[in-house]
Amino acid sequence: MARRFLIAVAMLFLAAMVGLPVAAIFYRAFAEGWGRYVAAILDPETLAAIRLTVVAALIVLPLNIVFGVASAWAIARYRFPGRRILLVLIEMPFAVSPIVAGLCFLLIYGAYGPVGALLEPLGVQLMFNLTGIVLVSLFVTSPFVMREILPVLMVTGEDEEKAALTLGANGWQIFRFVVLPNISWGLAYGTVLTMARAMGEFGAVSVVSGAIRGETMTLPLQIELLYNDYNATGAFAAATVLTGLALVTLALRGLLERFGPRRAHS
Amino acid sequence: MLRARSAPRSRSAPHILPGFSLSLGVSVLFLCLIVLLPVSGLLWNLGKLGPADYLQVMGSERVLTALRVTFTAAAAATAVNAVFGLLLAWVLTRYRFRGRGVMDALVDLPFALPTAVAGIALVALYDKSGWVGGVLDRMGLQVAYTWWGIVIAMIFTSIPFAVRAIQPAIEELDPAEDAAALTLGASPWQRFRLVALRPLLPAILTGTGLSFVRSLGEFGAVIFIAGNLPYKTEIASLLILIRLDEFDYPAAAAIAGTLLAVSLVLLAVINIAQTRLQSYLRVEG
């Protein structure tokens, strides 16, 4: 009895709090018919926003993979002063609210900030353009790859790597043939999370994007713009694109968990 | 939180494996440019402000109201998450039933869904033309564009934190203890309160703490449904953005610095309290 009751309550809660809102997006997007939906997606501004979102995420991804692998490797394999501080600092972006994160970047890399003021005479502007969007996206997604790889590196230990070293392998060979196969699942998982978050970030990007129509609007910002313009169908149509992306992320995650090695809870 | 304990032990012969300076160099360079420098920019601006100006910014009626709205809504959302997070974690860990896979995926959806999409989805559901909003409207209730809307948005974005933090702890519960309590004649409620709840407390604390911190900083999901009326339903994050648009950088930095400090202190407290509580329960139990 208790079992059935608890399951029913849990299901009702999730359906009402999470399922219904997501269903409502699709309902509203298609409320005026397929024609309006397709037209809304093919709107030049929305297409430009999709393009910008993808480009920014594709720049963020490789940089974060390099950082994530390097920092996880350094923390897992070496002892050095400040190692714990390094770990805390890497995880800090999780604790910083997106708007606060965006503001931090504006205050240092913006025209009135110390670094921004230094670069301005050279004609380099970092904020209110693609660079700014990439920088804040790097910040908000930076812990993901490291968090997925570090536990794997801790568990596998360094015996295989030392064996390879003894057999005469150089650093890159050890990385390519010993480390990379071990961390590949964690890396794949971290990549998926980074990609999804980079494409969906809203708060931090809205501070530094400059909000130029058709130029510096990422897809989440475009949704807000359309919504404030009373273009509900356009906003909900754009939202279905990002919702689809989220569902793909969840599906990939499920596949990685099913076919990959069992992940330890971190 | 990840813990970095089981690292190489041999201090006498460090760095046998190659790549130390490369990996550390890359990490530190990246951290400096992407994390340390921007955060210090905020601190630097706060420093320029001075205590009197800081108090003047933070003491204004509008800022105080925004902070009160943010904190009370986050607290309410966290309370709901504590109860339903525990329930969901329990059901997902202990029971096998049809639809469990779908439920498991639904729990993670708020993680994967961009916050702006979450916000617009809640509006679609709760404003007068929405499925739920329409029903509530006929009953004379309004959720969208009120404090309640903010609470719902915060519940949506932070429920996964509660569930995923509590789940591993439930997996580790010893079924034998529950069986023993049953044999000794404990009622279901006693078994839950005394046998299950106590060892779960550290995990519940972490989950609710994370969900509170996340709610404090939530922006995208909230602003769509909040109505954003100054002195009424304006959250602190939005006020930062408004001050920025007015080029009032010091005021923006003051509010942001306060939010950042509260989040970091809370995280530190959660971390310490969790460790303390765990060792306390181990000694007691």
UniProtKB/TrEMBL annotation, chain B:
Residues annotated as domain ABC transmembrane type-1: 67-270
Transmembrane segments: 20-46, 66-93, 105-125, 145-163, 249-273
Gene name of the encoded protein: cysT
Record keyword Transmembrane present: yes
Quaternary organization: The complex is composed of two ATP-binding proteins (CysA), two transmembrane proteins (CysT and CysW) and a solute-binding protein (CysP).
Topology relative to the membrane: Multi-pass membrane protein
Species, as recorded: Thioclava litoralis
Chief site of localization: membrane
Superkingdom of origin: Bacteria
Entry similarity comment: Belongs to the binding-protein-dependent transport system permease family. CysTW subfamily.
Protein name: Sulfate transport system permease protein CysT
Keyword Ion transport: no
Keyword annotations: Membrane, Plasmid, Sulfate transport, Transmembrane, Transmembrane helix, Transport
Function noted in UniProt: Part of the ABC transporter complex (TC 3.A.1.6.1) involved in sulfate/thiosulfate import.
Cell compartment(s), UniProt: Cell membrane
Gene3D superfamilies named among the record's database cross-references: MetI-like (1.10.3720.10)
One Pfam family of this chain: BPD_transp_1
